[in-house]
Structures are given as C-alpha cells and as structure tokens.
Amino acid sequence: MARSTAFGAPAAAGSMLPWLALALIILIADQFTKVLVMGYYRLGDSTYVWPFFNLVRAHNTGAAFSFLAAASGWQRWLFTGIGIVATLFIVYLLRSHAGQRLFSFALACILGGAVGNVVDRLLHGYVVDFLQFHWRGWYFPAFNIADMAITIGAACLVLDELLRVRKSR
Length: 169
Prior knowledge:
Largest sheet: 4 strands, antiparallel
Number of domains: 1
Strand content: 5-15%
Structural class: alpha+beta
Shape: globular
Distance between the termini: 19 Å
Radius of gyration: 18 Å
Number of helices: 4
Number of strands: 4
C-alpha cells in the first residue's frame, strides 16, 4: 500500500542516498564529539558551562535513562542487537519511502543516532554521554548527540503521523 505524505500527495519515489548521508553526518558528529570527550575528560570529570548546563563524561551501560545499567553485562548485547535490527528496518523503510521528506528525515535522525550508540557499545561496552542539564540541584541524565538525534527523529515521526491523520480527515 502506497503511503501518502502529510500533505495528501502520494509519496514520490526518491533516492534514499540523501537520507543515508544525513544519517552519516549525525554518526560522524556523534562519534567526533565522543572522541573529544574521551580525550579530554576522565570518567566523572565535569565542566560548568552555564548555570543550567555542564559538560561531563559519563558511561551508560544501559539504555535510555540508564535502564538496565545495573545488569550483569548481557544488556550490552541486547541493546546492540536491537540497534542492528532497527538499523536494517530503518534502511528498508527509507528505501520504500525516500520521497516522504518528514518521515525520511525522522528515520535518518534515528538511524544516525542508533548506529552511533551501537558503535559505542561495540567499541567500549557502554555509551559515552556528556551533555548534562541541571537546575537547582536537579540533574537530567547525561546524553549525547546520538540521543538528541533519536529524540528529534521520534518527535518528527509523531508530527508526520499527526499531519497525515489530520490531512486524511
């Protein structure tokens, strides 16, 4: 079944190469920033940047918000496997829907972020996080460029679906 765009027009066939290029740019930005953090910071080191923001080196052996971080190590392979399966599925979706801009943008962001975190898990056994927001003693869990891309992609998927449903009414 052909998927229509949020604006009602049928999804045009397009090349998935621009979307893979975007995913690659996200992956490179993610890995580059992590290399910088690992080169200049030791685990737990932190630099105060603004009253609400720090750079900090943290290692996350779990998933989002350190889910399963305290497990005995098996979670590394579970999350790596989930990332690989997600990557294959996203590439399939990009191939099928490359002409849908918002949908493909969302998928490319998620793809770049997922691969960035899978690379960390394979190389280090954990994901390197370094961006930390805080306010009056409350600290949001540290995260990285890959996490930001995944979050932006997820928000764009929701927006794409809302626009598509709205248009179909």
